[in-house]
Amino acid sequence: MRTLLKEDDVSHSTDYAIETEGITKHFGDLVAVDHIDLNARTGTVLGVLGPNGAGKTTMVRMLATLSQPTAGTGRVGGYDIIEHAPEVRSLIGLTGQFAGIDELLTGEENLRFIGRLLGMHTRDAKARARELLAQFNLADAADKPAKAYSGGMRRRLDLAASLVGRPKILFLDEPTTGLDPRARGELWGLVRDLVADGTTVLLTTQYLEEADQLAHEIAVIDHGRVIATGTPTQLKAKIGGQTLRIQPEDHGQLDALRSLVAERFPDLEPMVEAGAITIGVNDDGVMPTLAADLRDRGIALTEFHLGLSSLDEVFLTLTGRRTEEDADDSEEEAK
Amino acid sequence: MTAATIEAPAPALGRPGLGATVSQTLSMAWRQMVRIKHNPFELVDLSLSPIMFLLLFVYVFGGQMAGSTSDYLQYVLGGLIAQNAIFLTMYTGTGINADLRKGVYDRFRSLPIARSAPLAGKIFADMFKQVWSVVIMVGLGLLMGFELRSVGYAFLATLVLVVFALAISWVSVLMGVVADSEEKVQIYAFVIIMPLTFTSSAFVDINTMPGFMQAWAKVNPVTHLADAMRGLLSYGPIAEPLMWTFVWAVAIFAVTAPLAMRAYRRKMV
């Protein structure tokens, strides 16, 4: 199985900052990552989209040399992740789902500490820490212990910590999970700046919106396998990037509504659920056309809502089932 | 985005050399010292149990054990210092366990640094706590009327204690890496350390023990460490217990350090 984001078969190590071939990871009987092929072009953002337990974190841990694949190969910056793990580590930055910062230390001390570890002189490490704190809007909190930081500030500090050594390749494992929309937007801005400076980013996320905002290419993964790939535009065209939800005021009109949708748009597959119909759409004309029809037939509505598809809806379209929350536990336990 | 002004040194590709490893270990130790700076109560916490043990042992058991509290103080201070040092090494394991679970070590392992630096740095920094405790206990002992054999020997005693602690800390590291919670590290440590230190010459003359226990107490590393501390600080032979202390330190290190590093690498599954 070879699901490639590559456009040609000739691979030059400089073209792709991240390449995997059949990479696989077993935890006992559980297959967390199952023959995944991914490629991230240098200087772009590769979004890995999937629910909890899909294998995203396992994938990142293997590429960041924290974990060894059971089978298959991976190259980061042209270096094999097993044979040349030390070289890979000198090229990458990692921001995990759980912040790898010391809560007792101040923000400045956390960054200075990483700088010292990377072999900077004390003065340079201090200056680099101040520079990053300013860049990440943390200058005011520089001398406060990290435990006093808000969730958004911690994630920014954690991201800053992964950037002390100016990595060329950055792994962001669910960088905005649990953040409020404002903090999420701020973090997106920082990631865009890094990419503008030439950094290659592998981003895992549970949010289609996040992948849509940041990624040049997206790979959707489920149960450790790639189930769809493409640019955000291609992917949205395939899965219906938007979801239209229609709820009739009178429950009895649900069938009439469904047949109307089926007759008007035979290509779309309406889903009936909780007294409403949802359809994946990517044509802006659908909403006005339907609105006119509904008025003509006298179907009154309580809801007529167009929104960006959630991961759940993406999955429903791609796999015919909803995401499984319980898959999360098995992966966590396996670690 | 702010213009980059600070140039990071181009990270050296490949495995870090010895110089880099030492420097990284010192940076790791620096982090631990900054933690104490931000949480100075830890030192108070650390001092309470040796102070309490010293006061209770001397003033409660002293008269019964040695006929006078001052005679018992001369005997037991070295033993209490040895016991306390061994208990202190437990915190190395609990600290590593906490860092491992919180994802701090994930960051370390993604950096181009020596594999051993985080563990070695933690052990190294914890030696500060060892020295601190010796100072507290000898200081309190002097207030209670302890007669030091010689100041030079007292420094030597501290050095010996640190060397022994450096070696046996790897037992704690091994537990810290393998155990799935800090509490388990504490339970394991307690179950091992308590009987180990009591079946030694730390608190009593082992000739008063039944034969089977004497046989064990004579080889128990705590006996040798306690005898070495007593010899250097108070009275009694020095050379022989010192030699056995080193033999034990080397043996324990040679067995547990590779096991701990192996367990640590296997955490990378």
Automatic annotation (TrEMBL), chain A:
It comes from the Bacteria. The keyword Lyase does not apply. Keywords: Antibiotic resistance, ATP-binding, Cell membrane, Membrane, Nucleotide-binding, Translocase, Transport. It is a peripheral membrane protein. Pfam families: ABC_tran, DrrA1-3_C. One of its GO terms (biological process) is response to antibiotic. Its main location: membrane. InterPro entries: AAA+_ATPase, ABC_transporter-like_ATP-bd, ABC_transporter-like_CS, ABC_transporter_ATP-binding, DrrA, DrrA1/2-like_C, P-loop_NTPase. One of its GO terms (cellular component) is plasma membrane. Belongs to the ABC transporter superfamily. Drug exporter-1 (DrugE1) (TC 3.A.1.105) family. This is Oleandomycin transport system ATP-binding protein. It comes from Glycomyces artemisiae.
From TrEMBL, chain B:
It is a multi-pass membrane protein. Residues 41-267 form the ABC transmembrane type-2 domain. It is found in: Cell membrane; Membrane. Keywords: Antibiotic resistance, Cell membrane, Membrane, Transmembrane, Transmembrane helix, Transport. The keyword Transmembrane applies. GO terms for molecular function: ABC-type transporter activity. GO terms for cellular component: ATP-binding cassette (ABC) transporter complex. It comes from the Bacteria. One of its GO terms (biological process) is response to antibiotic. It holds the Pfam family ABC2_membrane. InterPro entries: ABC2_TM, ABC2_TM_bact-type, ABC_2_transport, Nod_factor_ABC_transporter. Its main location: membrane. The keyword RNA-binding does not apply. The chain crosses the membrane at residues 41-60, 72-92, 131-148, 154-178, 185-204, 242-261. Belongs to the ABC-2 integral membrane protein family. This is Transport permease protein. The lineage of its organism: Bacteria, Bacillati, Actinomycetota, Actinomycetes, Glycomycetales.
